[in-house]
Amino acid sequence: MIEEYWGLKEKPFSNTPDTRFLYRTGEFEEALARLLYNIKEIGGGLTVITGEIGSGKTFLAFALMEKLKEEGYPVALITNPTFSPTGLLREMAYSFGLEKVPRYRMQILKLLREFLEKNGKVGVLIIDEAQILKPSLLE
């Protein structure tokens, strides 16, 4: 309805960022380049992106995920990390595209380890809204 009224080809707003409509500032490109360098050249580790609400952190995460997937990296995105420790592992496995995820923690860890070793590239886990992670999930 709104599309017809305004002469749009598709809905103008979505809950999921669409990188086709991303305005790539110099700062954005630098942040993306630094993240890619950390993953490709250094082999990853923990990277934290901070910023005010609406500053583009989620768009940056989606652009990073898109670029890495194009290059064959296994990428998992978790957008609402309100899980138990085992639930988080299970969500990671599903986000990496694994099916038939086991019920128990050690079995999930084994499945994830085998998947990541088989791929040959560093796996990337992106957690949007990570500030709501329970401390027990970081242990």
How would you characterize this protein structure?
The structure is a single chain. The chain has 139 residues and is mainly alpha-helical. The chain has helices at residues 2-6, 26-42, 57-70, 85-95, 105-119, and strands spanning 75-78, 124-127. The chain has a single domain (2-138), classed as Rossmann fold (3-Layer(aba) Sandwich). Strands 1-2 form a two-stranded parallel sheet. The longest helix has 17 residues, at 26-42. The chain is globular. The termini are far apart. The mean pLDDT is 89.
Q: Give the percentage of residues in beta strands.
A: 5-15%
* Gross morphology: globular
CATH architectural category? 3-Layer(aba) Sandwich
Q: Tell how many strands the DSSP assignment holds.
A: 2
When the domains are counted, the total is 1
- CATH topology grouping: Rossmann fold
Which class of secondary structure composition applies to the elements?
mainly alpha
The pLDDT mean sits at 89
Low-confidence stretches: none
Distance between the termini: 49 Å
Radius of gyration: 17 Å
Order of helix and strand elements from N to C terminus: HHHEHHE
